[in-house]
Amino acid sequence: MGELHNLISIHDLSREDIDMILECAQKMEDIAVKRSKKYSSKIMACLFFEASTRTRLSFESAMIRLGGRVLGFADVAASSAGGKGETLADTIRTVERYADIIVIRHPLDGSARVAAEFSEIPIINAGSGSEEHPTQALLDLYSIKKMRGTIDGLSISLCGDLKYGRTVHSLGMALACYDVKVKLAAPTALKMKPAIIEEMKRAGIEVIQVDTLDEAIEDADVVYMTRIQKERFPDRREYDAVKGKFRLTEPDVKRMKEDTIILHPLPRVDEITADVDSTPQAKYFDQVYNGVVTRMAILDLILG
Ligand code: NCD
Fold first, then answer.
1. Does residue 67 sit in helix, strand or coil?
2. In CATH, which superfamily holds the domain spanning 134-288?
């Protein structure tokens, strides 16, 4: 693959690039346990203007396992952007003088791209508004490959908030590179953006839109659940009208194939009931660890 400086969108990567990252992530499984000193001279800054548990901590864990150091803030209120009204551009122009790579999460669409415009050092998008979350899509693909042995040939159902959920936007675009069948299951008000459906269809993959979880589960090899993105609704009443609409329960799992895997980027609210957790199909907590090795691969690719 060519030099990758920033990772802002899944569109920055070709199928070959994605496959290479997944292969590298697999090699990182061993290094993640043994640890490395490869990047002991490098510093990663995490700028999180929005809540995060897994993305920030797995990036930090990934960098530390590669021998690097980390700094940053996890709460916008503690930064000058929150407390004093500093612009994103000025924050980036400052932090690039403290670190070798920046991982940024921000509530606005386009924020990571703006950050990249002002930065001399690489920028990784860790979630930009409801737009994209490319590193989550890569760890989702890695999870599918690791758990099912392949991505090509699978029937994959993306369920829940397909309108505001950034993980399914990036994952949908990434799946357009593969030979898969995709079902999109969402309440009417939360359907997938037409541009992404078009992209998948143009790539020649079969895309079916359904309205219920029942239809999504049928014959699926992967059931990818998502949280309704309450914080992104312009109107609270719109959220109230759809909340709790899609809920995966243990009886639903009984109707799945034995080797179906259930994934979720987490955090979960109520869209997967607790009784699903102990079923063999529930893989969302195993998926969490894959974030560490996938992000090690991404950091290695950009810093290496
Ligand atoms: C997701 C996000 O932030 O977009 N979380 C994550 O990074 N694993 C999903 C969500 O918040 O629902």
1. coil
2. Aspartate/ornithine carbamoyltransferase (3.40.50.1370)
Beta carbons within 10 angstroms of residue 191's beta carbon: 16
For domain 10-132+291-303, give the fold: Rossmann fold (3.40.50)
Q: Is the CB of 127 inside a 6 Å radius of any atom of ligand 1? A: yes
Q: Does ligand 1 lie within 6 Å of residue 111's CB atom?
A: no
CA within 13 Å, CB half, 19: 10
Query: Would the pTM of this model clear 0.85, i.e. be above it?
Result: yes
Catalytic residues: 54-55, 84, 105, 133
The one-letter amino acid code at 77 reads: A
Whether the CB of 169 sits within 6 Å of ligand 1 = no
pLDDT digits (tens, 9 = 90+) for 56-104: 999 999 999 999 999 999 988 888 888 889 999 999 999 999 999 999 9
Please report the atom of ligand 1 found closest to the CA of residue 105. Answer: 3
